[in-house]
Amino acid sequence: MEDFFQHVLNGLNLGAIYALIALGYTMVYGVLQFINFAHAEVYMLGAFSIYYANKWLHLSDHPGWMAFGISIAIAIVVCSAVGLLIERLAYRPLRGSPRLNILITAIGVSLFLQFSGQAVFGADPKLFPQVLMDSEIVRFGQIQIRSFDLTILGVSMAAMALLHFLIHHTKMGRAIQAVRHSQTSASLMGINVNFMISLVFVLGSSLAGVGAVLVGLKYPKIDPLMGMLIGLKAFVAAVVGGIGSLPGAVVGGLLMGLSEEMVVAYLSSTYRDALAFGLLILILVLRPSGLFGKSQVEKV
Amino acid sequence: MILFVSVGALFLGAGCTNKESSKEASNQILIGQFGSLTGAEATFGQSTDKGIRLAIDAVNASGGIKGKKIKLITEDNQGKPDEAAAVVKKLITQDQVVALLGEVASNRSLAAAPIAQQFKIPMISPSSTNPKVTEIGNYIFRVCFIDPFQGPVMAKFAFEDLKAKKVAILKDLKSDYSLGLTEFFEKKYKELGGAITSTQNFQTGDTDFKAQLTAIRSEKPDAIFIPAYYTEVGLIARQVRQLGITAVLIGGDGWDSPKLFEIGGEAVEGAYYSNHYSTESPNPATQEFIKAYKEKFNETPDGMAASGYDAAGVLIEALKRVEEITPENIRKALAETKQYPGATGTITIDENRNADKEAFIVQVKDKGLKFVRTLAL
Amino acid sequence: MKVLKSATFQLFVFSILLATLSQNVLNPYQQLILSYVAINVILATSLNLVNGFCGQFSLGHAGFMAVGAYVSGVLSLHVQIFQGPIHFLNFPFYALVGGLAAAVAGWFVGMPSLKLRGDYLAIVTLGFGEIIRVIVLNLDSVGGARGLYGIPGPKGISLKDFGIPFELSSFFVGSTLAFFFAGGTCVVLWRLTRSSFGRAFLSVKEDEVASECMGVNTTQTKVFAFVISSFFAGVGGSLFAHTTNYLNPASFQFMKSVDVVIMVVLGGMGSLTGSVLAAIFVTVLPEALRPLQQYTGVDLRMVIYSLSLILLMILRPQGILGTKEWSDFSPFRKWVGKR
């Protein structure tokens, strides 16, 4: 029974990270109606940026909240920059092209970043610098709550809350919502659509950056292909929750994390990855709009 | 039009590369090496490559074999089995090598060996331990011990030396090496009277093992056997300690890499694994090798480098013994290798084309390896 | 002499001619590359049917290739109908069975998925491709993670036992088979796209709602395209199995599907000729670039691939040939006449 609670905790942790990354996918889909495959690579680059930053700044020599804060800041800046670049160079020229083309481009960018990463960083795994020390906080018999777990949950919740605040309680957020609804109308209302779209990318990528630091702390092994699998699962989470819906991404992420943990614990780790795909297919066949999405009627 | 021309040019280009090599063949001995120079387990291939090059450069510097120098053609298989098969085919059919050196990982060796056997080119694996590799045919050799030996060795060490009566196993479902080693360990360990509390599994590339380790934690084993590659072992070790499990960690030669300490950090301190050699071995051949390696590469060689060095060494020694350098003659000479003084121990190739050697048990201490003992069955 | 006009016979002759040519000009390694070219031609043209002609984005082609490869491989390990000099006839049989198995898989995947729109379909097919791969990975009977090796390839033909000094090397037989399959695929798909089915595909691609109004059963059409495409993917997989003699689930990852997509996009979605050309280009390029890897020590091939994909989409999304075929170029017009 104790194990079960530990599994629940593990699952929630995993889920929080998926949620952070899923938000990025869902936000971009909300405004541009396409799947930003490259999002996972933005996340990967965030992790590597801290690895290299550490070589210069020696953050891991003084682990603590200061180092942690700096890492998060660096990751956010780097990821936002990468996200912006991708949007400008690869996606903007294709605004208005058939959806297929954009999709292919997204795949192309994703692959390009992965393999350039391999070429530049080397394909072998590296160690993410430990900018925060882990320790046990509470213990109920065999169930542990470690400081990392709390940090991850805390920081992800804070990030999501911030996003929610931005979207629903600021003028900028209102503008983003308008662009999601209809780009043409929004521009007629005087909103700089291009700027808003770039902003969406920045926000989504920043979340990925935060996620990268959190994952790096918990699972310190990083390599250029680390984004692929986690990106896929986060994407599935976004779809399950209803792509385009922010609360959906969060719920989807947590669900994904929990089910993955349970499957590995009680079935077999063989099915860990297959679960993601299985869930995806299930939801797309049964309820394509996801848990929180609205089913769209195609008008002629 | 431009397209047709460019396609045609590419075609010819891919073809032209082979015309030159045939001229040089007469005064050079072409040896092919295939390894994982890039990819997830890159240190395996890189270390092996250095060991091989050390041996070949040494023999070339002293005049070569019967006046001919050895030319080493190296291909990177990026850690992928089908790429291994493709580059081996290229080495054999295009580069026309007379012998092959490779690979470290059993699944790449298993992909390449049928091809070497089909074309009757002798292949020597420096450190693939899965027994199936040499079973493929009489042209396939190895200079290391095999898992039916390594598994029981670790089982014996765990039961008798570490006095571990209960062991949990965490194996990698995607790795042939891991599955094979688990099988042999389990059999011997149960024979000795030990109990396996459970066998958990994961897959190459996984980063989260909390679920499996939580289950293991409740079983309170004395030791956890992790027959996998260093790439996952580091992370697993960390999570083992994070969950508060105090059991001893034991493993096999797949752990052998300088990256193990980097990724595993404090968590791997005190762990034991079986290896092909140890830097503290009193064997003169070993110490000579270590000295030469340090001089050339400025670092301490790991087990893979030593195995690579010995694989090349055994091949060179066989080349010296043949009358005429043909693949068939090389094969015969290799099969007759007796008491070759290698850096990893004395190598005699038995009738199954495996090397009969003892294992070195090492312990991780202070980000380095400490020699514990040698073990044979 | 009606048989002389039959397409199968002409195809056979063509394959033999091409094989003879390559036997005399190229070394075994290059012949191997040609076999890979043939495999990729089959894969690219079949995927083009779904992605290009029908406008549905499938990212799971590797999964069907895997089904065909494994079924064909396992079959060949246990069943050999033709013995002796006509041993090579076994392989069309294996390919047929592999293709059929893949077609069935295609039907299972297509039925639920083809109701979905663009990006969703892409992801679902990707998912199915991966699921197929994971299933194979866990099937120990076909080797699982360690792979299936020792798959027989075409043997040479020797009539020495009959007293006739006629011998063909296994490379020759293998190449002939490869070209035969590739040629056959092209011919079948060419005829298909120029039939009423082909027009149905195109109409679905242009506007589904309008097609439905015109009486085209869009779902059935899409499923049909999918099944045919999977069949040929299976044939390609079978050829792959017998050429490399070793199968490992790692060869059928998402990357493989992406490879084929690159070929289709590069050649032009909607142009079979383009797919053939792109397949040749994409297969030969990495081999030609191999020396580059030795110089730089890193694998730049995939980097170049992905970069070219991006640039292609931005600068020339219709690929090399767009929707044109070889018959659209003036010297050939006279042969084929206007479409």
Tell me what the structure shows.
The complex is a heterotrimer of chains A (300), B (377) and C (339). Chain A has 300 residues and is mostly helical. Chain A has a domain at 20-227. Chain A is built from 11 helices and 4 strands; from the N terminus they run ααααβββααααβααα. Chain A has helices at residues 2-32, 39-57, 65-91, 99-121, 147-169, 171-181, 183-188, 193-218, 226-241, 246-266, 271-286; strands spanning 126-127, 136-140, 143-146, 221-222. Chain A has a two-stranded antiparallel ribbon. By secondary structure, chain B is α/β, with parallel strands linked by helices. Chain B has 2 domains: 11-145 and 282-358, Rossmann fold (3-Layer(aba) Sandwich); 148-275, Rossmann fold, CATH 3.40.50. Chain B contains 14 helices and 14 strands. Chain B has helices spanning 2-16, 21-24, 42-61, 81-93, 106-119, 132-135, 147-161, 176-192, 210-219, 230-242, 259-264, 284-297, 303-321, 327-335; strands at 28-35, 69-76, 99-101, 123-125, 140-142, 166-172, 195-202, 223-225, 248-251, 272-275, 340-342, 345-347, 359-365, 368-375. Chain B is globular. Chain C is globular and about 65 Å long. Chain C has 15 helices and 4 strands. Chain C has helices spanning 2-5, 7-25, 28-53, 61-78, 90-113, 118-138, 170-193, 196-206, 208-213, 218-244, 254-267, 272-288, 290-296, 301-315, 330-336, and strands spanning 148-149, 157-158, 167-168, 246-247. Chain C is 71% helix and 2% strand. In chain C, the strands form 2 sheets. Chain C has a two-stranded antiparallel sheet. A two-stranded antiparallel sheet of chain C has the order 2-3. In chain C, a hairpin with an 8-residue loop joins strand 2 and strand 3. With 339 residues, chain C is mainly alpha-helical. At the B-C interface, helix 1, helix 4 and helix 5 of B face helix 3, helix 12 and helix 13 of C.
How are the SSEs ordered, and which strands pair?
The complex is a heterotrimer of chains A (300), B (377) and C (339).
Chain A: H1 2-32, H2 39-57, H3 65-91, H4 99-121, E1 126-127, E2 136-140, E3 143-146, H5 147-169, H6 171-181, H7 183-188, H8 193-218, E4 221-222, H9 226-241, H10 246-266, H11 271-286
Antiparallel strand pairs in A: 1-4, 2-3
Helix pairs in contact in A: 1-5, 1-8, 1-9, 1-10, 2-3, 2-4, 2-8, 2-9, 3-8, 5-6, 5-8, 6-8, 9-10, 9-11, 10-11
Chain B: H1 2-16, H2 21-24, E1 28-35, H3 42-61, E2 69-76, H4 81-93, E3 99-101, H5 106-119, E4 123-125, H6 132-135, E5 140-142, H7 147-161, E6 166-172, H8 176-192, E7 195-202, H9 210-219, E8 223-225, H10 230-242, E9 248-251, H11 259-264, E10 272-275, H12 284-297, H13 303-321, H14 327-335, E11 340-342, E12 345-347, E13 359-365, E14 368-375
Parallel strand pairs in B: 1-2, 1-3, 3-4, 4-5, 6-7, 6-8, 8-9, 9-10
Antiparallel strand pairs in B: 10-13, 11-12, 13-14
Helix pairs in contact in B: 3-13, 4-5, 7-8, 13-14
Chain C: H1 2-5, H2 7-25, H3 28-53, H4 61-78, H5 90-113, H6 118-138, E1 148-149, E2 157-158, E3 167-168, H7 170-193, H8 196-206, H9 208-213, H10 218-244, E4 246-247, H11 254-267, H12 272-288, H13 290-296, H14 301-315, H15 330-336
Antiparallel strand pairs in C: 1-4, 2-3
Helix pairs in contact in C: 2-7, 3-7, 3-8, 3-10, 3-11, 3-12, 4-5, 4-6, 4-10, 5-10, 7-10, 8-10, 11-12
